[in-house]
User: Fold this.
Amino acid sequence: MTETASAAPRGGKRGRKGLKIKRIFTTPGVHPYDQVKWELRDVVMTNWRDGTVNFEQRGVEFPDFWSVNAANIVTSKYFRGAIGTPQREWSLKQLVDRVVGVYTKTGLEHGYFASEEDAEIFDHELKYALVHQLFSFNSPVWFNVGTASPQQVSACFILSVEDTMESILDWYKEEGVIFKGGSGAGINLSKIRSSKELLSSGGTASGPVSFMRGADASAGTIKSGGATRRAAKMVVLDVDHPDIEEFIETKAREEEKIRALRDAGFDMDLGGKDIVSVQYQNANNSVRVSDEFMEAVEKGNDFGLRARLTGQVIEKVDARTLFRKMAQAAWECADPGIQYDDTINDWHTTPNSGRITASNPCSEYVHLDNSSCNLASINLLKFLKDDDTFDVETFVKLTELIITAMDISITFADFPTEKIGKTTRAFRQLGIGYANLGALLMATGHAYDSDGGRAVAAAITSLMTGTSYRRSAELAGIVGPYEGYALNAEPHMRIMRKHAAANDALKTVGRMDAEIHAEATRQWAECLRLGEKNGYRNAQASLLAPTGTIGLMMDCDTTGIEPDLALVKIKKLVGGGSMQIVNQTVPRALRKLGYREDQIEAIVAYIAEHGHVVNAPELRPEHYEVFDCAMGERAIAPMGHVRMMAAVQPFLSGAISKTVNLPESATVEDIEQVFMQGWKLGLKALAVYRDNCKVGQPLSAAKKAEEKKAEPEIRVVEVPRPRRRRMPSQRPSTTRRFTVGGAKGYMTASTYPDDGLGEVFLKMSKQGSTLAGVMDAFSVAISIGLQYGVPLETYVSKFVNMRFDPAGMTDDPDIRMASSVMDYIFRRLALDYLPYEERAALGIFSASERAAQQRGEDPAALHSEEGLDAEALAQSAPIEVGSGRSASSAGTAAPQREETATRALESHQGRTADAPLCMTCGTKMRPAGTCYVCEGCGSTSGCS
Assistant:
């Protein structure tokens, strides 16, 4: 525990007590950097569109235990200074020194520490924790602190708008300023009069949905204008607003437009040049529901929609019908989400200063309008000791340290608007959270959707928040409570008692959570005692953020509160390339469950091949649930996600950034059940996503087209036996040398004189080796198939995305990364011998075509169809087929190939089919809370 002691006055200020900081990780007289082995690396990141290098910095310095991915992300995103100049940061030491130096200096100047020695200990402990990836601040801290830029430390903002044109235009401006810096903002539009109400001039009001168009266009423009990430925003509307039905159906209608335009031939894919014509695509929408409304849904009663100015009911609707429309729209396009207004405000620490009406874009920060919150997240797996016990004592000490640093940051922080700065300084909202919960549970043998898993998560969350508020009370005794505390002392203490009561009601299941819970109980008791005496320094302390980029920075296997995405991961290698590995938490979990090393080896090998544990050798079925993931063969049920959120929500000041994933087969009733149970279980906010619900995505569009097809006429036809068309003795051919993941090879492709591919020969390794023999046999099999008329496109659809070593970087500018030698070979053959239309259906493009797409041009314009015989290029020997071949079967070939290729990739990676491609490096992104994060370069879709 940290003690307090009298401190001498500084800067003429009245003397206060300062913190006596005790060492946790460091040793007196030894700098924390000296406890680490450092190494120099080269960071070279290529552009997926044309293979050019888009980032390069050589000789950067990182600890030897940092992964390649973490070092790449920090170097490219967080190091400041122009590349190639002496001012450019080149070491993690410089980055950490820049940030921590400001925190330590500010804390010393403002009386946080009892002495300069305590300030030095604080400095060393913070540096140790950051270098060892024990926690991380949110991205704006790394971007801005210690630079010449404004000292912006917050990632989460909430704005407000009044029912005047001046206020609405101010909203547009304030959002733009926040988006420009790469952060996100949320707003509730319920004060704006509905389209069913009159203006003072006698005309009819436009309504909030119409004003959303302008804000959406602004956000889209700033996104394409080169910001660090897209403009992330949240738009909220109260369920009793007269325009609520229009708001609910807004994005669902736009999805219908996407479908119609796509069917008409427009480019409506993610990043497509025509997608910008569709509105409302830059915001998450949420409906703010009340207990009154939810009770009306349960009872089947009518519900009143109220005028904004008078509060009078101007229309009554059937509550169940309105609730059904919410679920229907979410089923169709994942919007709107839902926020439970009365629950949020029942846990509000400062109600006398105003209600909570909105949230940030990811829904985890819920507090006063015109406010902000800086975040930091703890890497939970770092506290799992070798004996599989949780290091409670160290966790408590680190939490103290983080809260102290986060509060100091508000003292020196700059803010995008004067209103936000004033509110944030007056209430000092903090957002401590964690990452790697899913990995921690798996490593300790706990199923994510189990009583034991939920008990561990709840106990850790309670301990974190109890410790945070206890430290906040200590800080209040040293540097004073937050400015708004005097007005809100009674309700703030009421919420502290609610948290403590929830902790007392927590039922433990095993030894691990019982030990954590015991310490949490002590922390809450001390928190209440000190709070009664000193008040609190912070109106808010904790929440659970998505931890996108910073999760990768800390080398976390799982983000935020999420379970593991998949059991098999792709690991980057030093010097380029990558390899597929089974998560390292899997062997640890198996040891915890009592399996022998030979059994573990066999189970891990099975998972590496199949991507799941079902029927793994010697793995007992009752242990399957420990390895359940967000997706895949054994996906966690939707209510499993809801129950986990409900377990930790009573121990958080804010809310939780998390999306409840549902399978494509889920019904509207399933989503209604999730929304209803979220309310009953005490959640503050909830978002859902049904796989492939975005009709603008290739996979779902193909499926919708198949659903609309009429049943084909059943006909019996006689299919002639295919005949082999042998290659002539002399034929044209090309030989290409290639490198995949460091392995060299040669490919010779021969064509018929009339320009149809008929033969492929591959050579790798020395003659006489097993690999050389296998490649020779494979070449013969492929060549004979081509000569018998098997379309090249069939081979391409089967072999691209196949994964095995060697894999990684290639020396081909058109194909920069390959998941295997087979993946490279058939991508190259497709580029050389298939027409553009067929390659495009398979998602295979050349560097010039990708560059054209990025410029907003149609890559098809690069190709002239004159003189091209598509049939000859795509198929070496035609198959004579009778007239019974139906047109419908030919028409569905491309969607079937597309689905095959997509599912082959994603079933192994465990990623959603609808996840967007990263606009920086082209890698498929992964879910992180309600957003997405790129594992390749660290870019996010709006989260920090």
